[in-house]
Amino acid sequence: MTLNQQIAKIEKEFDEKFGDDPLERITPKGSCKEVKLFYRQAIKDVVKETIKEIVPKEKELNLPDEDTIDNVYIAVDGIVYVPKGTEFQPAETLKGKRYVIVRTYSAGVFAGYLESRKGKEVVLRNARRIWYWAGAASLSQLAMEGTSKPDECKFPQAVNRVELTEAIEILDCSKKAKESIESIKIWKE
């Protein structure tokens, strides 16, 4: 079905649901909220169908969630584009060192600049222990989005350098996550 055919179909469904007269479209057959919901669903359907037609069948895509149209993906010549600001934006480096979260086998979780890694041994600079976090379901979410509950987190003060043995996970942090982690008030007793 072409885009024009889809639009014609939507207009026909709209007229059937809300009437032909523009004034009757809002009342008495339907409320403003119903009209908005109708159009929102119609737009989602058109976007998804258009993406399916444009993108080659052999390409696997992560299409927008069924319940949201906020992050619309656009494909041109088989290349998928995402809205500006939704792509991964890495945290600024410190003299070429990446800002990461490291989970260890027994010492806990730390965030800082990755100075070196040899096997399971990791050295971090300007590192904070992530003693307790809230507002992120996992370290993966913390590394991408930061925390949505900064007042509930317990991050002690940063140390200049820490050597961690038995590192089992190293996650690159986004700029947003780094700013979130660094903004957490120092936890002390």
Summarize the structure.
It contains 4 helices and 7 strands; from the N terminus they run H-H-E-E-E-E-E-H-E-E-H. By secondary structure, the protein is of the alpha+beta class.
Description:
The protein has 189 residues and is α+β, with helices and mostly antiparallel strands. It has 2 domains: 3-81, no CATH class; 99-183, Roll (SH3 type barrels). It has helices at residues 3-18, 32-54, 139-145, 175-183; strands spanning 74-76, 79-81, 99-104, 109-118, 121-129, 159-164, 167-172. A 5-stranded antiparallel beta sheet has the order 6-5-4-3-7, with helices on one face. A two-stranded antiparallel ribbon has the order 1-2. Helix 1 packs antiparallel against helix 2 and helix 3 packs across helix 4 (175-183). The longest helix has 23 residues, at 32-54. Residues 63-71 have low confidence and may be disordered.
